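Onboarding guide, step 5: your first structure request.
Type a short instruction followed by the sequence, for example:

Predict the 3D structure of this protein.
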Amino acid sequence: MEATLQLVECPRDAMQGWKSFIPTTDKIRYLNLLLKAGFHTLDFGSFVSPKYIPQMADTALVLEKLKPSPTQLLAIVANLRGAQDAVQHQRIRYLGFPFSVSETFQQRNTHSSREEALHTVEEIEKLCRQTGKELVVYMSMGFGNPYGDPYSAEILASWTAKIHALGVRIISLADTVGMATPDQVYQAVHHLRPAFPDTIFGVHLHATPSGLEEKLNAALDAGCIRIDGAVGGIGGCPMADDVLVGNMNTSAILKVLEQRGLYTGIDMHFFQEAEWLSNQIFVP
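The system replies with structure tokens like these:
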């Protein structure tokens, strides 16, 4: 566990729903501090339409100014065109695609059906293999949805099997609107890991501060080794609902991992500097 724990910091998720545009120079300063902190992966930006996510319109410009780091870069894409743009950049190691267990949310988020999105996953996976990148699929609404769409653990497992069959080997279960219970998190990871032993399962959980520790411990107890968080617990998907449920606060994640005796490799000096800068950038 200690050797394989993957901490993913998600400033992109924190920024994308922020109402006022964050200056490009501030994004660059912030991301470069996070790159020094020692995360496994930095979800730094996205290649999506600025019409829908204007905050990410400067992703390519930001990328040009990011300093070398052992931390791997991940960019979110919502279609094949975005993936084609992303793979042009050598610094990007991972492409992330949001596949929704909920049909309604798939339409809201990528303007496609789940079957169409599955075909997009297939095309992006091929593109990643051709260009030396790796695809991470986020199972959005992975623990239920607010739209009344059918959901069960069996439905989640069925779509996971289809994603796996396309060659995807990193799958992150996303609690997009903070609906998951700790038991749901545990059961999902616990059952999927042995069913797909060649796949890394992560969790991208949105949670209130009071619900974070139980959900995170449930994921870790089930053997999850890939954990997403965001400084300050900021974030949420603007395509999901009017009320955004924030990400798991990275500082709280680090405390839980420390309590469990798990090595994170995070340089707290640079992490705390990033926390300070976050408080200057994310001003209501």
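Each response can be followed by summary notes, for example: The mean pLDDT is 94.
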